[in-house]
Amino acid sequence: MNFKITTIPGDGIGPEIVAEARKVLLRVSEVYGHSFSFEEVLMGGCSIDAYGEPLTDETIEKCKASDAVLMGSIGGKVGQSKWYELPPEKRPEAGLLKLRKSLGLFCNLRPAHLYPELKKACPLRESIADKGFDVMMVRELTGGLYFGKRKTEVVDGEEVAIDTLEYHDYEIRRIAKKAFEIAMKRNKKVTSVDKANVLDSSRLWRRIFAEVAADYPEVELENALVDSTAMQLVRNPAQFDVVATENMFGDILSDEMAEIAGSLGMLPSASLREDSFGLYEPSGGSAPDIAGMNIANPLATILSAAMMLRYSFNLTKEADSIENAVAEALAQGYRTGDIMDDSAEGLKKLHTDEMGDKIAELIK
Ligand code: NAD
Asked: What is the pLDDT of residues 136-148, one digit of tens each?
């Protein structure tokens, strides 16, 4: 099969880590007989330098014309880079926000997977880390409090600020469908997280999830309140498979899970549209402190490429082959500096490109 991938290497370590993901994808295409074509475009600081703006219309059009987008990261050293002397709408991050909006990406996926070899980095109790976990956080990205009507006014001499939490049924239905489709490719359980004991928007959320669940009889639907979920995620994360929630709850819970799962260099992410199109990127930033040194961890970007194969191209075996190769490299003791444990014996420290080579070599 042929797939068109737009790559956005971006700034800092972005070009280094995207190059390794591309290397692994090319190996997958050789082993499984697919054809991936890549077109590289600029976004972020490098686009400001080249075109005077963080995102051009041409970049948006190229992304739209492809089957998926694979991104590195954008931005410079916070507060120090020349890009931050520009007004906010001209800075690197403005490009990413505009791109997500232009592409209609409403569903954010952040898997939190604790690899047994990295469990020392997990801040949870040893007995919990020993069990391991693999949770897919599904966050609604375009509705809720962050996008509702807002105002600040003075009422009877007091300043009052108002934010509105608004959800339309179609917004809930489309994210629910995504959550169930994702659960079908995993362990067939969805935990829908809300605050239905207090909020009308949550009661609508819960009702629509129950309606959508009827179309997925193989998937178990569990409803949970956000406060108790925050607690359960640290008490027993292994009980969860797919955790689906609205924008603000998801913002908070997915950061909680990222912290529990360990290194930033290991965390992939995806933002999806209603059809199969998606944008895939590591959860970390452009790490200007280590840019150009060939020491960044490329695994989050490589795992983001695996998500692209699974969720945009429906290539399950191929996605598994990348994820298995990452697990195997870790099991064989290969590490980049950020996940190195100098006190452990038998570990081998690799540069960014060597880790890419190792994963490509382990693709079966
Ligand atoms: P950061 O995530 O870039 O770095 C935080 C720390 O984690 C640094 O010590 C860095 O070296 C380390 N790190 C991050 N990714 C790593 C990797 N793959 N391998 C090894 N170590 C890694 O966060 P920051 O320093 O706060 O931000 C730097 C820039 O990135 C800023 O301009 C910020 O706006 C931008 N940013 C971009 C995105 C994005 O492109 N989606 C996301 C977050 C931050």
From this structure: 999 999 999 988 9
